[in-house]
Amino acid sequence: MKIKVIVSAVALALSVGACSKQNESEETASVISPTEQSTLVSQPVNGSDFTQASLNQIGETLDISYRVVTNVPDGHCDQNTVDGRCFLAEIDLTSQVDIDNKDWAIYYSQMRPIQSIVGDEFTITRIQGDLHKIAPAAGFSGIKKGQTKTIQFRGELWQLSETDAMPNYYIVADDLEPVIIGSTQVAVDSETGMEVRPYVSAFTDSDTQYKRRETDKLEWATTEVLYRNNLNTPVDASLAENTILPTPSKVSLKIDAKPVSLKDGLKLELNDVSLEAVDAALQRLARIGVGQSDAEIGRGISTALLPLTAPSAKGEYRLDISSNGIKVFAADDAGFSYGLASLAALVDVDTLTVNPLLVEDAPRYDFRGMHIDVSRNFHSKQLVLDLLDQMAAYKLNKLHLHMADDEGWRLEIADLPELTEVGSKRCHDLNEDTCLLPQLGSGPFSNTKVNGYYSKADYIEILQYAAARQIQVIPSMDMPGHSRAAIKSMEARYRKLMAQDKAAEANEYLLSDSQDKTVYSSIQYYNDNTLNVCMESTFTFIDKVIDEIAKMHQQAGVPLNLYHIGADETAGAWLESPVCKAFIANNDKGVTNMQDLGAYFIERTSKLLAAKGIEAAGWSDGMSHTRPENMPKQVQSNIWDVVAHGGHKRAHTQANLNWQAVLGQPEVLYFDFPYEADPKEHGYYWASRNTNSQKIHSFMAGNLPANAEQWTDIEALPFEADDMLKKDEAGKIISGPLKASIRFAGIQGQLWSETVRSDDVAEYMMFPRLMMLAERAWHKPEWEVPYQYQGAVYNQQSGYFTKEMRQAQAKDWHRVANTLGAKELLKLDKAGIAYRVPTPGAVINDGKLFANVIFPGLSIEYRDAKGQWQAYSDGVTVTAPVEVRVIAADGKRKGRILVVN
């Protein structure tokens, strides 16, 4: 995952030892539970008499709860960390049996490392990454049946979300099989379909639990806050009529013409267009009730695919609907597919009619991408195929498939079986001979859905499925940082081959120097996740992987011409590597100091790719360390810098190099962040705690710094974006505006999966935000502030975003919001997409309930005092408190319940 620079500084300053200190001076916190939770009769566990049965019993009955006490720092915080901040949290252990034995440990994932622990009964030790171990300490006095022992500790920075508390704690003892502690497993809400964490105590206090610091002005998204935010959006289904998402360049309604019925289907005239090129678009029409008619019977409306003369852009099309027939004009397969997609967008799913009109359309950006991380937690092939269907429906054309990172390698590679035999799964093997260490709450066993990989056949199927929808798949195996899965897999291979006296084979693909004593910590707290770039075997490995992926593309009939190397977040590795010291001393590669090794790796790998006819892509932070003169002429940089922290500067610098700069600003395009500012919402939150569809809609992609006029930072504070030319004392340009001839290549949404454990949660996080991504990637709104090529300073008083522009933006949002609520979400329901059903806004005034929703048209329900759910009507009389929820467009799934007081 991409983490903002200020947080990266914390990770770089940490060593392993600094993350697991114990404070012996503070008192033990333990209390007796007022009531015993069970009448279970059992023998105490004492001495060293653990058996598998007794360990299983503890796993089944031990009750664990986790709670954040406060995020307000106190005098006990470690002052050597950035800002000297810490949070205070507690883990309760309530046993159903007497536990006197000290020979056990509980392993669990702790998102932030521990600074100190209160008391002397337990230790908490960080193993690697987020894997921690709770163990009895010298002062451990046992846990009696019915007793609650509280482990109080302080951790780095803050924890602002209930989903920070990862699941699947497990207990180990002696050589017994590990046992998952049942109370720490996630449950699934039967009505929402979403994960819930019953072991996490709910946040109750905004000031102590939900504020990052004293200056934080962000409001918890209570029903009152949501009501206020939604209040200005009218409920007007007529705004959805003749509306297409993403918005076309031009729509002309034919006056006085009657609706055209599609009930009898489409009588398709392909002319010279292949059926395979448009079959996916036809399938979507069929899902909403518009199939193809039987040509012999002669029913159905004539639908002709015809050539478009003099197109100006890839994917350009013209859609002409009249009572006499439908015509789609295009010059390429994408254009024909997009024309049919727009026809599907216009269909009234109840009447299966469309209005006669003319659509003239072309995309704003050629690169319209969606990134999905299947490495941190694996996601099924079916999820990817379903995602591709929806990308095609909304005219997105690039799938950035992130398949290798620290926590998993997800693609079968010929001749390197260890990558998937070891690197695709996490389990309790501390030697990592058979799997990687557990991370992200994955638990001790490898047979879980968060583990897995795509076979070669799976990947080829994905490629072909994407190509049939005019979508390019961009494979990504992150390097040189974020490479722990590859490193540990190749170390396991090395050990296996060395045991067979095959030293040459063992060293062929080795990625690490066993004598490297460098102490570093990545942003995810690993000290062993960076490829050693001084070893030739590293480049042998990379060459092998790229060649094998290219072969799969060739087999699929889809050439590999863009490959994403990652290139980001290296964390000070190599400094004490003997191999690297020798490498620099020899100086035969033009590298004279350790600081140039990262650039050397990216430059060399990019050239390796270019020699194979493949363009290299990387994340903007790593790409910024390269020497442009040493890079291929054609490269892509994915910009993930936060606008509120001057993120426009790197975007402009790299675009001005004539690189293909693809925007992915975290505060608006990271879909692993919460939708609303609520600690129950899924996701990390280091750049934004409230990225809902309206915020994405507001994004001015063509003028990054101008967003300072309409957005606030993560703490809801205003910020300034200075886009004037800046030079250092030597006259070198530090930052400045875009050159007049430069444009961004496109935009890309990102789903990182650290907190995304299931396919349903992945769809919840991506939809409906993906539709707003498509809107901003395809359509340039009239309300976007024109870019000032001479440079400008933007803030909430600068006035470039005029009153008229703001009004036009609001009016545009009203149209889009009503379109989603009135017709588009229903199409997602028909496709089986588990999109997020929004939380409602609501207030009680004079005993009457008033409620609204971000997507007008969705139904709202309420109930008094746990009574029966009733359909909401405006101003209904109620008695507080009242529970409210929103219903999915098809009336089946339910949204999360909120309480109105």
From TrEMBL:
One of its GO terms (biological process) is glycosaminoglycan metabolic process. It catalyses: Hydrolysis of terminal non-reducing N-acetyl-D-hexosamine residues in N-acetyl-beta-D-hexosaminides. It is an enzyme of class 3 (hydrolase). It comes from Shewanella halifaxensis (strain HAW-EB4). InterPro entries: Beta_hexosaminidase_sua/sub, CBM2/CBM3_carb-bd_dom_sf, CBM2_carb-bd_dom_sf, CHB/HEX_N_dom, CHB_C_dom, GH, Glyco_hydro_20_cat, Hex-like_dom2. It comes from the Bacteria. Pfam families: CHB_HEX (PF03173), CHB_HEX_C (PF03174), Glyco_hydro_20 (PF00728), Glyco_hydro_20b (PF02838). GO terms for cellular component: membrane. Its EC number is 3.2.1.52. Belongs to the glycosyl hydrolase 20 family. Residues 60-225 form the Chitobiase/beta-hexosaminidases N-terminal domain. Residues 1-20 form the signal peptide. GO terms for molecular function: beta-N-acetylhexosaminidase activity; polysaccharide binding. Keywords: Glycosidase, Hydrolase, Signal. The active site is at 569 (proton donor). This is beta-N-acetylhexosaminidase.
